[in-house]
Amino acid sequence: MKKIVDSFIDFINNPWQTKYLIFFFLVNFVGSIYGYYWYYGQLSRISISLWLFVPDSPLSTTLLMLVLGLRFLGVRNTLLELLAVTANIKYGLWAVFILSDFWLKIGTFKGLELMLFASHLGMAIQGWIFLRALLKEKMPSGIVVISLVSWMLANDFIDYYLRIFPNLYYPGQEKTGAFLAVALSLLVTFVFGMAYLTSGKHNYRYFR
């Protein structure tokens, strides 16, 4: 148990080590494959032109895979990195809250739902750890943050205006889903705002 705790602390402090890049690349690869399988039925009913906006969670983990692979090769892209990690946080938390809302309504849960809850909570945790590491390295430019938040809000609008949001658990839950999606997009904006306000000159106290 001590070795597991020590490894987790080591990962939090320096997630860009090669062993973690490889491990989380593989974990997210498996998660992405299952995620696209989960969305298969919905994707088959939607125009190909909208596919980019449908499988939010597996697309998030795929983007993180790409970031980890590029890091392994020594390649960096600030916008891609921030998009990947914040998407993991947003859609990981979104699924956790949606499932919790469903359980509170019906009072019971199934094994598959527990697996989805745990995997999406893991998405949010890994996203936060990598985001924390990124912001300690370098504060992104304003244009990068604006682009990131604009993409998230545009995705929310397309999801719920065109009604291509993920399959939900009971009639009427789309209102909760829409509220959570926009709220989490705004939370991302708040986090970056706090980072700027508390960072000082290259001193990222908020993320230490």
Number of separate structural domains:
1
Quantity of strands, as a count: 0
The oligomerization state is: single chain
Major beta sheet summary = none
Give the averaged pLDDT, no decimals. Answer: 89
Structural class: mainly alpha
Radius of gyration: 17 Å
Helices, by number, come to: 8
Structural key phrases:
mainly alpha, 8 helices, 0% strand, disordered C terminus
What is the compact description of this entry?
The protein has 208 residues and is an all-alpha fold.
Task: Characterize the structure shown.
- With 208 residues, the protein is mainly alpha-helical.
- It has one domain.
- Helix content is 76%, strand content 0%.
- The chain has 8 helices and no strands.
- The longest helix is centred in the middle third of the chain and has 29 residues.
- The C terminus is likely disordered.
Topology, please?
Elements: H1 2-13, H2 18-38, H3 40-44, H4 56-72, H5 78-106, H6 111-137, H7 142-161, H8 173-199
